[in-house]
Amino acid sequence: MEILAFGVQADEKPLIEKAFAGLHDIRCVEVFLTPDTAPIAAGHEMISTSVNANLSGRVLQTLAVGGTTMIAQRSTGFNNIDLEVAERLGITIARVSYYSPYSVAEFAWTLAMAVNRKIVRASGRTRDFDFRLDGLMGRDLRGRTVGVVGTGKIGEAFTRIAHGLGMNLLGWDVAENPACVELGMRYVDKAELLATSDLISLHVPLLPATHHLIGRQELRAMKDDAILVNSSRGGLIDTDALVGELRKGRFTGVGLDVYEAEAGLFFLDRSLEAITDDTLARLVTFPQVLVTSHQAYYTQDAVGQIVAATLQNVTDYVAGRRNENFLVPRV
Q1: What is the mean pLDDT of residues 24-29?
Q2: Which UniProt keywords apply (predicted)?
Q3: Taking all residues of the chain, what is their mean pLDDT, rounded to a whole number?
Q4: What is the pLDDT of residues 69-124, one digit of tens each?
Q5: pLDDT of 2 over the 80 cut
Q6: 28-46 pLDDT, tens per residue?
Q7: Pairing of strands 253-256, 289-291
């Protein structure tokens, strides 16, 4: 039985093929799963998908007609999957419920440091042999206040780094993390966190309740010189509202590894095409904004764990077992 893996990056392919070798046949393709590419899965009982795959009801219906009965998604988030339709069609869905939280936490800090110390602008200048310091002044983070929105595994890892930097720790979540409290975190309501934090980092999943968690009202509540970082899901921020505030000259820095309309853009080369996303085109023109293409998870350690979990999900499915990663169990 051959498994078809969609959206496989060049660095990811050898890790997948090595892990599956001798256990399951797998064919890796670069194309992402969309309504247009779904028909190529015909004849494959099992497929594997990436974080930006389109697993809407329409796509799931196409997959079911083609004989697919199991989807192993190589990510933690599953907001892109219509689970109700999958269950109705009898398609088993599995995800990766855990991988290195340090990969994302460390990258969130990379974004924060980069926008604070104007690293991208400085690098561009030195490439042109312009060694002036004008406009490159940053701020010490020690003694300043960081607001961590979501204090699960990734939020905790982010908090530990903040603690090491000597920052004041504020947290907001549905439940307190004892490990963060032990580090000195004080849990407050969202309004206080937004109004008093010098740096705000988002580490919550994208759910109906968290869609546009940071909207126009929340952005206006933040300090004018705050730094905002999002390495979780693009839909947590109302991007149009963010652009509106940036046009007013607000915020010292914004670091975004995710974008709410990234599907069909991120992980692809669009450099030779006309830019049709006006919001993204405007966003990347602001000098204090740094946008990266959903790479926070992309370390050897994290991808290795994702591949291992995906292999386990496939193996358990074949053996008729289920594990904690199964969102829609095998019928």
Answers
A1: 96
A2: NAD, Oxidoreductase
A3: 96
A4: 999 999 998 989 999 999 999 999 999 999 999 999 999 999 999 999 999 999 99
A5: yes
A6: 999 999 999 999 999 999 9
A7: parallel
Spatial separation of the C-alpha atoms in residues 54 and 2, rounded to whole Å: 21
Cα–Cα distances in angstroms (integers) from residue 50 to residues 199, 232, 249, in the given order:
30, 15, 36
Superfamily, domain 2-99+299-328: NAD(P)-binding Rossmann-like Domain (3.40.50.720)
- Is there a catalytic annotation at residue 273? no
What CA–CA distance (Å, rounded) separates 29 from 40? 10
DSSP string for residues in 63-82: HHHTT--EEEESSS--TTB-
Is the pTM of the predicted complex or chain greater than 0.90? Answer: yes
- 101-291 has the same fold as 2-99+299-328: yes
Q: Which residue has the tokens 């032990």?
A: 182
The β-bridge relationship of strands 289-291 and 326-328 is: unpaired
By the 8 A CB rule, do 176 and 151 touch?
yes
Question: Do 116 and 253 contact (CB within 8 A), yes or no?
Answer: yes
Q: Does domain 101-291 have CATH number 3.40.50.720?
A: yes
Residues 12, 156, 218, 233: which is the catalytic one? 233
Q: Helix, strand, coil proportions of the chain in percent (round to 5)?
A: 35, 15, 50
